[in-house]
Each structure stands twice: as C-alpha cells, then as structure tokens.
Write a structure and sequence with these properties.
- The protein is mostly helical and 284 residues long.
- The chain folds into two domains: 52 residues, no CATH class; 164 residues, Multidrug efflux transporter AcrB transmembrane fold (Up-down Bundle), CATH 1.20.1640.
- Helix content is 63%, strand content 4%.
- The chain contains nine helices and four strands, in the order ββββααααααααα.
- A two-stranded antiparallel ribbon has the order 1-2. A two-stranded antiparallel ribbon has the order 3-4.
- The longest helix has 37 residues.
- The N and C termini lie far apart (114 Å).
C-alpha cells in the first residue's frame, strides 16, 4: 500500500505533485470485503434446509424469524435460485391441478360422462400417499425431483385405473350390471396391471439406490415414483373397482346431454345414407 505515496498527480498549476505531499497512510482494522445490496450495506448469509425440510419451508422460516427479530429499518432479500423461488412461491399445486383437470376432461369426453372419470381421479391419492411415505422413510425432501415423480404417477396410475374402468364400461354397455362389470374388469385386468407395474418398479430400484454425482436427485425421483407405483398398484386393483361401482351407480340413467338418444349422431347419419342408397338401388 505504501507504493501509492510514490504516485504523482497534477495540481492547480499543472505541476506534478506526489501523493505523499498531501496524504498519508494509516493502517486500521476492517473487513476484507464490504457487501452491498442495492447500494445498502448488507450481510450475506448462506444456508441449507435441515434434513427432511424443503427449501420453501426454509424460506418461510427465515421470513418469520426476520419479521420477529430484525429491528426497524432492516429487511431481507434473496439472490440466485432462492430469489426465483421466493418470488414465484409454491406453484406445484397449480401444476397438479392443471394435470388432474386435463386428465379428468379427457376421460369425460371418452366416457361421455362427468361422473365416471371420478373413479380414476379418486384412485390417485393412494399412490401420492405411497410416494410421500417412502420419501419420509428414505429421509428425502419434497423437492422438484419428487414433484416430477408425482406428475409422472398421475399418468401411470391413471393408466392402470383406465384399464379397469374402460373394460367395466364396455361390459356394462353389453348388458352386465355395474357390480358384475366392476368385478369382471378387476379380474381381467389384474394380471396385465401387475406385470407392467412391477416391471416398471423393478426398473426404478437402481435409480432409488443411486450413488455418486447427482445421487440425491436420482434417489428422490426414484423413491417418489417407486413408492407411488407400489402403493397405487397393490391397493389400486382393489380400490378402482369399488370406485367404479360407486360412481357408475351414480351415473346410471344420466346422460351427458339432456334428451340425448342412445345412438350417436354419426351413427344415425350413416344409417340414413344406407337407407338412401338402398332406395336408389331399388328405383334403378
């Protein structure tokens, strides 16, 4: 630092004057770095959530402590990923609602009923419970990887439920009662569901036991998907037929459109074309 005194600068008369002519150096104690945030003096704090807690919960805890402890004129601000997460909040709930709504309306269009798709939708919480249970047992957090696994479960478990409900709906249209259709659907679809689901579960085991770089993300994603598939498969083959019986009974005799005929408009149109063709052939 003493070399600064050997530097020169011009004075008012244009003469070169050394710094030592008008200044001196004095050693004092102070921080090596001074942190500022938006031109205000600040203190940088870095931290990680404790085991079993999410970053969203940690951010909320910091906010509560700061609100109670900081004196007047002091505040907190976020940087990096924490800034984005604190600004956007918990958007995962909205994503799940959009996914469930999309699945529900697609099934409502397929079954031409607003009630029967509820048998598929209400079978999903069992798998979600299994996901959170296994994450808790593994000591993992409910982070973005777990949420991706939950969204994936909606499609996988929904597919298993659709297999049973679709077959039961067809059997009911063929003349079987709702109870008979539900039992037959569970019997016929039992083996295909177990085969595909347990094959998928076996493929998730290496992901759940991953090690090395990125192991936590792989283990979280694998555990969320495996726990949900295991619970959803084991209990789903029992719950889905019961849900179909409940909602199928509620939907019995109800139609999507008031005064709707049993035959579709396209079927009636084709039937009229066939009759017109036959009349033309007879006239010839």
């Amino acid at each position: 630092p003493s070399d600064i005194l050997n530097l020169y600068i011009k004075n008012d008369h244009g003469e070169m004057v050394p710094y030592s002519a008008f200044m001196r150096l004095k050693k004092t104690q102070g921080p090596n770095e001074i942190t500022r945030y938006n031109m205000y003096n600040s203190a940088a704090i870095q931290g990680l959530p404790a085991k079993g807690y999410t970053t969203a919960e940690a951010i909320q805890a910091v906010r509560e402590v700061a609100k109670k402890s900081l004196p007047k004129g002091y505040d907190i601000a976020w940087e990096g990923l924490s800034y984005d997460e604190a600004g956007k909040g918990n958007e995962s709930i909205y994503i799940f609602l959009i996914v469930l709504s999309f699945v529900y309306f697609v099934l409502a269009a397929q079954y031409e009923s607003f009630i029967i798709p509820l048998a598929v939708v209400f079978s999903l919480p069992v798998g979600v419970f299994g996901s959170f249970l296994l994450l808790k047992m593994m000591g993992l957090q409910n982070d973005i990887y777990a949420q991706i696994g939950l969204i994936m479960l909606v499609g996988l478990l929904g597919k298993n439920a659709v297999l049973i409900v679709e077959f039961a709906v067809q059997k009911h249209h063929e003349g079987a009662t709702i109870l008979e259709a539900a039992i037959e659907g569970a019997k016929v679809r039992f083996r295909p569901i177990l085969m595909t689901s347990f094959a998928f579960i076996a493929g998730l085991i290496p992901l759940m036991l991953a090690s090395g770089a990125g192991a936590i993300g792989n283990r979280t994603l694998g555990s969320a998907a495996l726990g949900g598939m295991l619970f959803g498969t084991v209990f789903g083959v029992i719950i889905v037929p019961g849900l179909y019986y409940i909602f199928g009974s509620l939907a019995a005799g109800r139609k999507l459109i008031r005064d709707e005929e049993d035959s579709s408009l396209s079927h009636e149109f084709v039937h009229q074309i066939d009759n017109f063709t036959k009349e033309e052939q007879e006239n010839e």
